[in-house]
Amino acid sequence: MKKISPELLRDSIQCAMTLFCIWVGYRFYLFYQWMIGNSDVAVTKPGAVEGFLPISSLLSLKQLFTKGIFDEVHPAGLTIFIAVLVMSLIMRKGFCGYLCPVGFIHNLLNKIGRKIGKTVTVKGKIEFGMLIPKYIALAFFVITVFKMGGRELQAFIRSPYNFTAEAKMMLFFTDMSITAALVVGTILALGIFIPYFWCRFLCPYGALLGILAKVSPIAIKREEDKCISCGKCNKACPGGIEVDRKQTINSPECVGCTQCINACPVDGCLNVTDRLSRVKLPWYVIAAGSLVILLVYYAAAKFTNHWDSPYPLEMLRKYYMMM
Ligand code: SF4
Ligand code: SF4
Ligand code: SF4
């Protein structure tokens, strides 16, 4: 029987999560069609679709902190957002490494790039310059949300725009304009040649998670005395990290994917380690921990009625018809 390697585990979880997201998207499409009167088949809204609204969730999080109000427009979105933030604080960027479907698409694009031998390594000052845009985008969102007063926040959260945000997101993909298709196509094409192009250089969500992951107690450690300086870990790393130059990898680019461990030919040279106690952990702990955190938050939200929106469907239908 084939031994489960870090690569196989990661590919399997990413694939399963992506299939799940496609199913969620399809269910939401059916729900939308029913809501706008194009179908007679009643479908319940899959709450997980709200996980694709991190900006709305960031506003809801501020409302939760400042007013103590848990968002009732996209409660599942806020639950997923909090789970992902907590995940990053504990399990590094486990969300990026295993759960995000865009990360899986980039994983596949990277495999294509390697197969055809056309990947480009972005290093040094060019890498530094290319990393800046995602932090600028993140700063823009955070400052905008920070500046919003209580009334503005409430007005946005209860606006028809916010109520219909996931439908707008779906229509962006189903009725894509030529300009949008060109932009998305270019980003995907670049992902073949520049590994994880969107994730590494443009995604503000990933930038936020990377900053939070800096305090995570879990990190990859390299045993210098065992290392043979073969550089295989560097080539395997989706974060473009020079693993063979560090003792502990605490970069905001590390997604905890353990592909460096997968590539390393020396047993026990790279390990997932608890930085506080220096105890070596099983290599699959980030994958397992990330999944457990997500499921615990989902179960807690379901159990405490913080998953499904209590707003009447007729209200949502009215907003959908106005779009
Ligand atoms: S960087 Fe962004 S798109 Fe990439 S895996 Fe992370 S959250 Fe998803
Ligand atoms: S350092 Fe290792 S665990 Fe971190 S992103 Fe690179 S390959 Fe993945
Ligand atoms: S793959 Fe392992 S042995 Fe090779 S450079 Fe990286 S840490 Fe050292």
Task: Write the SSE topology.
Blueprint: H1 6-35, H2 54-67, H3 75-91, H4 94-99, H5 101-115, H6 124-147, H7 150-157, H8 160-163, H9 165-174, H10 178-193, H11 197-201, H12 204-213, E1 218-222, H13 232-236, E2 248-249, H14 259-263, E3 270-274, E4 280-281, H15 285-303, H16 313-322
Antiparallel strand pairs: 1-2, 1-3, 3-4
Helix pairs in contact: 1-5, 2-3, 2-6, 2-7, 3-12, 3-15, 5-10, 6-12
Bound molecules: iron/sulfur cluster (3 copies).
One iron/sulfur cluster is lined by residues 96, 100, 102-103, 198-199, 203, 205-206.
Specify the structural class.
mainly alpha
Main sheet characteristics: 4 strands, antiparallel
Number of helices: 16
| Count of distinct structural domains | 1
- The strand line-up of the biggest sheet is 2-1-3-4
Low-confidence stretches: none
> Could you tell me which ligands this complex binds, including any ions or cofactors?
iron/sulfur cluster
SSE order = HHHHHHHHHHHHEHEHEEHH
Average pLDDT across residues? 96
**How much strand content do the residues show?**
under 5%
Overall geometry comes to: globular
Quick one: how many beta strands? 4
Terminal Cα span: 53 Å
Q: Percent helix among the residues?
A: 55-70%
The whole-angstrom Rg is 21 Å
Transmembrane segments: 12-32, 126-146, 178-199, 281-300
Subcellular location: Cell membrane
Organism: Maridesulfovibrio salexigens (strain ATCC 14822 / DSM 2638 / NCIMB 8403 / VKM B-1763) (Desulfovibrio salexigens)
Keywords: Cell membrane, Iron, Iron-sulfur, Membrane, Metal-binding, Transmembrane, Transmembrane helix
